[in-house]
Amino acid sequence: MKMLAVRCLVAISLLAAATVAFANPFKSKIISSDDSVVEITVPGDHFMKITNFTQDGGTDRGVVEVVLPGDQENGGSTNVLTAARIDFSTGANAQNSPEISNRVTIAGPAIVKIKPIVGAKLFITYKKERDEGSGGGGGGASPTVIPIFSPTPGVTPTPTGTPFIFPTPFGG
């Protein structure tokens, strides 16, 4: 009986350690209409994945706006994602099908802004990760060649004509 308890303790310890080691650093925020503008800074060697952006209530649509750090004075910003509306009303909107929530990845350096919407609650889930890639823009990385071997030569299709019979009009 003691041996079973020791084995269970070891198994639970290993599972707990794996959970802590591999836990996803997703963050979620709820933005109410009386909150201030949410600003999330994405450093140059990071990127941000937004996996969920929904809106409950309000008439205007919530948006995720991205500003590049060098373009703030020029007004260089763009909306990259709109909120998917979730409406639990029983009126005419109850007949609408649910909207599809899209995902977006934003490369740094950037400033992500989410403005509150009057009468609405916005919900966003995101994760910032370090960019582990090396030279995706041609910095010094060389592509890795993967040879593909085939035991038999491939078959080349030969085009053939397909007969088509045209109908003739009656009485003509």
Bulk shape: extended
**Can you count the helices?**
1
Distance between the termini: 97 Å
Query: Structural class of the helix and strand makeup?
Result: mainly beta
Rounded average pLDDT:
75
Rounded to the nearest angstrom, the radius of gyration is 27 Å
Give a count of the beta strands, DSSP E runs of length 2 or more. Answer: 9
Fraction of helical residues? 10-25%
Largest sheet composition = 5 strands, mixed
Q: What labels describe this entry?
A:
single chain; 172 residues; mainly beta; 9 strands; extended
Q: What does the model show?
A:
This protein is mainly beta. It contains 1 helix and 9 strands. It has one helix spanning 2-21; strands at 27-31, 38-42, 46-57, 63-67, 77-82, 84-85, 104-107, 110-114, 120-130. Strands 1, 3, 6, 7 and 9 form a 5-stranded mixed beta sheet that branches. Strands 2-8-4-5 form a 4-stranded antiparallel beta sheet, with no helix packed on it. The mean pLDDT is 75.
Layout of strands and helices, then pairs:
Elements: H1 2-21, E1 27-31, E2 38-42, E3 46-57, E4 63-67, E5 77-82, E6 84-85, E7 104-107, E8 110-114, E9 120-130
Give me a quick take on this structure.
The chain is mostly beta strands. It contains one helix and nine strands. The strands form two sheets. Strands 1, 3, 6, 7 and 9 form a five-stranded mixed β-sheet that branches. It has a four-stranded antiparallel β-sheet with strand order 2-8-4-5, with no helix packed on it.
